[in-house]
Structures are given as structure tokens and as C-alpha cells.
Design brief:
single chain, about 575 residues, Serine Threonine Protein Phosphatase 5, Tetratricopeptide repeat
Length: about 575
């Protein structure tokens, strides 16, 4: 504890908590309006029928990570308490973030004093890299890891090395990034507490044993961290290490991407300026509680610790299977801002200007278009589009027959809808028998396929989802309100033919031929498809319609070529 400062100051803690809570709600309230995306549905689907003991089994490890605390247990417990309610999940992320932030403040206050800790806290809070973990339900993985990691460091500072093993283990079970925590602990013990390397390693030996035990038990750690084999999807975001570290450094100032807010700078300025008083309030209240400044020796030791903490926290970005996202380096960010807090504690005017500038840049950065899933713009876009898709689908079909398959076309890129075989649809309808895929995954049903119906949808920027009804039906009813009806069914007919579902293809081409008598090619395709499945009489009727445009000889020639091709498709 620093001289002249009270170790416990509940009044200060309460005020900082209230300021942080107001800040996260004001700055990230949009999260409460967003639906789940991508990983959220995978985890919800996995824990739907799981028992408590199932949560800890190394099975169905999505993306080959083993995180039973922050994934399986987190989603299992919340879904049983609140159902698949996005507001509950986002609200818990808000609470976790505030808890992480206040824990960081209390730790840095013990190490650096209230002034430096206030600057560090306000600076960390003002960063746009938090948008991913706060907006995204699955961001709880990082928040749990940070919370337990900070509790681990709190136990070290209190000299309770054995107790520190518990939060260390939970942090490791939340996210693999926590593997650097024992090294940060060694840095604290050696640089701040002091003593020889031998005594430092003796005090921290238990932490290394926990790390070793976790590494030995982790089912996929070696292949997942040291090779590219399990994460081809993340490779587009993989950066050479100089670029990764440069981007991480720029992210500490909210300029890892050039800010270009989609809604314009005026809105970004309004939102950013609205949050400034809350962050400056943290600086004000912490400076009012300041005691005697730390000694030069203590300050130097803390600076060295902060540098070591930052470097170790950011070292995970060097792993070959890790893509770059600003929030991946958040553990190192906490060390970096402890350094900034100490440096600016003697220049509070500069600290005020820096924090205010970062608050404005944060709002601009969050609204800047980006295809990085860790950014606020990406998460907001994905959540908004997915919410519209869910509303449209449930409006078209409030319920679905068991075993149904849903196929979609033209879904916007990067919205996290159809991961796997459509867990989102299973969550929306609370039916584990449903499947949802892109058109390209269509295959005809087999006797082994579960009973049910197939549904087809196209995304539309106006109607959101347009259902493309397969099979016979009233043409006028289907065509009404869908100016793209002909193209939709042409695509569907082609899909059926190319996947060997000739009977379904024959029906679609027959509908097209009836709806468009000026298109003899449709009649020709319908005739060939019917003949290929043995419906000769229907085939002849369509050939006669096509012959009125092509002539009998040409129809026979074309039909022969089509039949040869169709029969090669028929499984």
C-alpha cells in the first residue's frame, strides 16, 4: 500500500463503479438491441440438452478451443435462467466489464496510487477495442479471462500465492490467452517485490504447476496454437508480427483504422462528447483521493512491471494460428495503460486532454465500417441484419414441422447466420431437429433423412426474406409481390437438376413454362426432366409446346442432349 492512502475506500470505489456503469450504458447501449450472432448460436445449441457434467467434457470443441467456464457454463447457466434472451446476455457482459474495470482500478491503485490508477482506468475505458467483447455475447470469454486474471494478480499483491492458483485456473478455463499470467506474476514478484530469481520462482512455482497441468489436459492446445491446421477461417486476419504490433500500438490510441464514421462525424462527436464527463469524472474523483505520491524507486519498479505486462500480454499475437483483432491484445493493454497512468500522473492536464480525445475517437472508431468481427460496426451490422432475418422468418413461419430443412440464398456476407448447419434456426424455434444451410448445401432427401419439409428463402433488401415455394402451387399467389419470381424459380430449378433431384426440377421447370409461355427453353427443360424420371406423357406435352418455337427436329436434337446430361445427374 502507498503511504498516505487508505487501502479500503468504499466511497471512492462506489463512485467509480457508478461512473463506469453510466459510461458503459451510454457508450454501448446499442448492444441491448442486438440479437445473437455466429458463435452465440453454436454455444446455445451445444448446451441445450447438456447436463452440468457434460459442460466440462472435451467434446464438440468449436474452433478447437477448450473454454468450459466462459463458453459452456456461461451459456448453459444463462440460458436456463433467462432462456435465449439477448438482453440478459448483453447485460451480463456490461456487468462483467464494469467488474473487470473496477478490479483493474483497485489493482493499479495499490501499485501506483489513485491518480495514476484513475488515468489508467479512464484511458482503458475509452478504447474502442472493447466494442467486440461488449457488443458480442461471446465476448464474455475475454471478460471472464480478464476478471479472473486480475483476481490472480490481486492475490499475488496480497501475498496469497496459493489462493492465486484458483483464479488462475478459472482464467485458463475461460480463454487460452491467460497462459501468460504466470509470467506476469513472475514479473511482479521480481520487479516490484524484489529478491533473487530463485526466490521469485519458488514463490510462484504453484502457478507454473497449474499452467503445466492445464496445458497437459487441454485437448487441442498444441495443434491449435502452434499450427494453422485448425483455423483456416482466421487466416485472412493474420498479420506479420511487425504489422500486428503496430496495429496493437495504434489501437491504444483508437487509430488502428483511420476513423471514418458511417453516420458522419457530427453524430460521432455528439456521442463521444456525451461520454467525456463520465471519464473525466473518474480523473476528478481519483485525484481528490490522492495521497502522497509514490517514491521514485516504487514508480520505476511499477513502470518496469507495466512494460513487462504489456509485452507479455501482447506476445500471444505472435502465435501462428492467431489472427489479429485489436481486442486479442487486451490483457497487454492493461499493462500499457498502467505505464501511461504513471507517466501522466505528474501532468494531469495532458491526461485530461488525452482521455477526452480518446472518448471522441472511440465513438468514431466504433462506427467506422470494418469486416473485422471484433469491431463495433461489424457486430452492430451483423446483429441488426440477423434480427431482421429472425423477425421475417418467424413472420413467414411461426412454427415449422419437425425435421425441416431451410435453405437460403443471397444472405449478406459476414453476419454469422449459417455457421455449421444452422444453429440459429434451432435456437429461434427451440427445435433441435431443424437444419439451415445455403442453397449450395442442398441435397435431395434420402430414406435415411428425417421426415420433414424443405423451405427455400432469398434475402431481399426490402422484404428481408422472400420465400421461394418449391413444388406445385398457385402461380398467381406465388408471383404476387415478387418481381423476381421467374429468376428465383429458375435458380431453384437449376439447383434441383444439378443436385440430381430431377423430380423437383421437373416441377419447377413446369411452373416456369406455364408462367412464361414465351420461353420455349423452359418447356424444353420441363419435357426433358419429366422424360428422365419416366413421365413420358407429361414430357411430350412440354415438347409440343417447345416445338412451336424450335420445330420438331430441333426439339428432338436438344432433348436428346438434355436427356443424356440429366440421366448422368440422376443418382
Amino acid at each position: 500500500m502507498l503511504a498516505g492512502e487508505r487501502e479500503r475506500d468504499p466511497a471512492l470505489t462506489l463512485v467509480v463503479v457508478l461512473l463506469l456503469a453510466a459510461y458503459v450504458v451510454l457508450g454501448y447501449w446499442h448492444a441491448l438491441t442486438l440479437t445473437f450472432v455466429n458463435d452465440d448460436y453454436l454455444f446455445l445449441d451445444k448446451v441445450r440438452a447438456a447436463s452440468f457434467f457434460d459442460l466440462w467434457k472435451p467434446e464438440r470443441l468449436y474452433f478447437h478451443w477448450y473454454r468450459p467456464w466462459s463458453r459452456e457454463l456461461h451459456y448453459w447457466l444463462l440460458s436456463r435462467l433467462f432462456g435465449a434472451n439477448e438482453i440478459a446476455f448483453h447485460a451480463l457482459n456490461f456487468c462483467l466489464w464494469v467488474t473487470v474495470a473496477i478490479s483493474y482500478f483497485q489493482l493499479t491503485r495499490r501499485l501506483t496510487g489513485a491518480v495514476a490508477a484513475g488515468i489508467a482506468l479512464a484511458g482503458v475505458a475509452s478504447l474502442a477495442l472493447w466494442a467486440g467483447p461488449i457488443y458480442w455475447g461471446a465476448g464474455a470469454q475475454d471478460l471472464w479471462m480478464l476478471l479472473f486474471g486480475l483476481l490472480f494478480l490481486h492475490a499475488l499483491v496480497a501475498g496469497r500465492h496459493r489462493l492465486a492458483c484458483v483464479p488462475l485456473a478459472l482464467s485458463l478455463l475461460s480463454k487460452e490467452t491467460a497462459a501468460v499470467l504466470p509470467a506476469i506474476g513472475v514479473a511482479y514478484e521480481h520487479l516490484v517485490v524484489g529478491g533473487s530469481w530463485r526466490s521469485t520462482l519458488r514463490r510462484t512455482a504453484g502457478h507454473w504447476l497449474v499452467l503445466a497441468g492445464w496445458a497437459l489436459c487441454h485437448p487441442t492446445l498444441r495443434s491449435r496454437l502452434l499450427t494453422f491446421a485448425h483455423d483456416p477461417g482466421d487466416m485472412p486476419s493474420r498479420l506479420p508480427w511487425p504489422e500486428a504490433f503496430f496495429g496493437t500500438a495504434m489501437a491504444q490510441m483508437n487509430v488502428d483504422r483511420w476513423p471514418a464514421p458511417e453516420a458522419g462525424w457530427s453524430r460521432a462527436l455528439i456521442v463521444g462528447v456525451a461520454t467525456v464527463p463520465l471519464l473525466l469524472g473518474i480523473l476528478f474523483v481519483t485525484s481528490r483521493r490522492a495521497g502522497a505520491p509514490p517514491t521514485r524507486a516504487k514508480e520505476a519498479a511499477t513502470l518496469r512491471l507495466g512494460v513487462a505486462w504489456a509485452v507479455l500480454g501482447w506476445s500471444v499475437l505472435l502465435l501462428p494460428s492467431i489472427g489479429w483483432h485489436a481486442y486479442y491484445g487486451v490483457l497487454g493493454t492493461l499493462g500499457f495503460w498502467m505505464v501511461v497512468g504513471v507517466v501522466l500522473s505528474r501532468s494531469r492536464g495532458a491526461a485530461l486532454a488525452l482521455v477526452a480525445s480518446l472518448a471522441v475517437l472511440r465513438s468514431a472508431q466504433i462506427d467506422t465500417p470494418s469486416w473485422d468481427w471484433g469491431t463495433g460496426w461489424y457486430q452492430f451490422r451483423a446483429g441488426t441484419i440477423l434480427g431482421s432475418i429472425r423477425e421475417s422468418l418467424l413472420g413467414l413461419h411461426p412454427s415449422l414441422p419437425r425435421g425441416s430443412r431451410l435453405f437460403f440464398a443471397r444472405i449478406p456476407n459476414d453476419v454469422g447466420f449459417l455457421s455449421g448447419d444452422g444453429p440459429a434456426v434451432r435456437v429461434w424455434y427451440d427445435d433441435p431437429s431443424l437444419r439451415a444451410m445455403y442453397y449450395s448445401a442442398y441435397a435431395p432427401r434420402t430414406p435415411e433423412t428425417s421426415p420433414g419439409r424443405d423451405f427455400f428463402f432469398r434475402f431481399d433488401t426490402v422484404q428481408v426474406l422472400v420465400e421461394v415455394h418449391a413444388g406445385p402451387g398457385p402461380l398467381l399467389g406465388e408471383m404476387k409481390g415478387n418481381p423476381d419470381w421467374q429468376h428465383d424459380h429458375e435458380v431453384l430449378a437449376s439447383l434441383f437438376i444439378h443436385t440430381g433431384d430431377l423430380a423437383a426440377g421437373a416441377v419447377e421447370y413446369a411452373k416456369l413454362a406455364h408462367a412464361s409461355p414465351d420461353r420455349p427453353d423452359y418447356a424444353l427443360y420441363a419435357g426433358a426432366a419429366h422424360e428422365a424420371i419416366g413421365r413420358m406423357e407429361e414430357g411430350r406435352r412440354f415438347y409440343q409446346a417447345a416445338a412451336r418455337a424450335y420445330g420438331d427436329v430441333e426439339v428432338r436434337r436438344r432433348a436428346g442432349a438434355l436427356l443424356s446430361a440429366l440421366r448422368s445427374q440422376d443418382p
